[in-house]
Write a structure and sequence with these properties.
131 residues, alpha/beta, four-stranded mixed beta sheet, 10 strands, elongated
Length: 131
């Protein structure tokens, strides 16, 4: 074998091993407490605004409202949000779809408890806390 070819082969192998070690290095996630966002009220209706982001999360992963008062849910999604373009709240029979970032709304009256909202595949997840 030619010495130059052998040197290139050794360097390529070293680069591959280095690249592989970087990709397999453990990543320590930054854990932050999800902020609780309280819904605004305009009298009898509590307005909630939730947006699905292209990062795979909601801008408000936890929202709190008062029990027994009507909630108006305003939903929108980034155009690159994938399955997050659909928001489902199974407990209230809500299914909203925002294909091009437009806002969709639904109204319901929740009772005390914690309720999940998610995309249809449950990859995006959030909770509605009703007190």
């Amino acid at each position: 074998m030619d010495k130059a070819f052998l040197a290139v082969l050794i360097l390529a192998g070293a680069f591959f091993a280095y690249a592989l070690s970087i990709s397999l290095a453990p990543v320590s996630p930054v854990l932050r407490a999800a902020p609780t966002v309280y819904a605004g009220t305009d009298g009898a209706v509590q307005d909630i605004y939730i947006k699905a982001l292209s990062s795979g999360t909601y801008d408000r992963p936890q929202v709190s409202v008062k029990a027994g008062q009507k909630v108006r849910l305003h939903f929108s999604a980034d155009p690159n949000a994938g399955c997050g373009k659909t928001l489902v709240m199974r407990d209230f029979n809500v299914r909203l779809v925002s294909l091009n970032g437009e806002e969709r709304t639904a109204e319901f009256t929740p009772q005390r408890g914690t309720y999940e909202f998610s995309c249809s595949m449950r990859m995006f997840r959030g909770s509605l806390v009703v007190a």
